[in-house]
Amino acid sequence: MKAILLAGGLGTRLRSVVADRPKPMADVNGKPFAEYLVHALASQGIREITFAVGYLGEMIEEYFGDGSKFGVKARYAYEKELLGTAGAIKNAAKAMDPDFDRVLVLNADTFYAMDYSRCFACAEEQDLDMALVLREVPDIRRYGEAVLTDGILTGFNEKSGEERRGTINGGVYCITKERIDAIPDGKVSLENEMIPLWMKEGRKLGGYVEKGYFIDIGVPEDYARFGRDAADGKVIW
To answer: Quick one: which of 24, 54, 146, 197 has the most CB atoms within 10 Å?
Structure first.
């Protein structure tokens, strides 16, 4: 199993507490946030990780090197300019050996505890072009709702002014090489452009809802909370 870690964002909302490094390298109890994610992936059989890097990406490469210290083979795909999520995925795929059918894609500033092999299995068993892992939240108003009907994605990024429980995009995907090859060159958003387009085209997108520990360290309060949770042993894989 192979994975792409999207690590090229500028992390502007976290600059007040993490100003000298890319967000995935934010210190959490003596080691960078991304190390927790890499250990989680390696512990579940992911053997090749390609970091999609941009802002201060050299710090990530210097730390993780060839990946051997962490039980993986690490590669790096640099963005000369911001490419958006889909553009970064396509650029990262070019740095990988072409011998893959599907690849796991994750945000390198988010920790979502789960069985990663389930995402691959979901995609393979249902012959999906793309499998998405969703998250249930108590109030969908802050987010765009993602809707599954019998395991197939039927709604995505749908805004609602209604306070109610619902499911949102968890930012973990298993995507076929064919779909990645179909992404146009340049700056392209996966969430705002490619997923809506693929749904319109009738591509087979589906997934499931995962209940594991979830946190995005994009704002200072959540970054601090992850540090406390990691120290308390709540961050497991």
So the answer is: 24
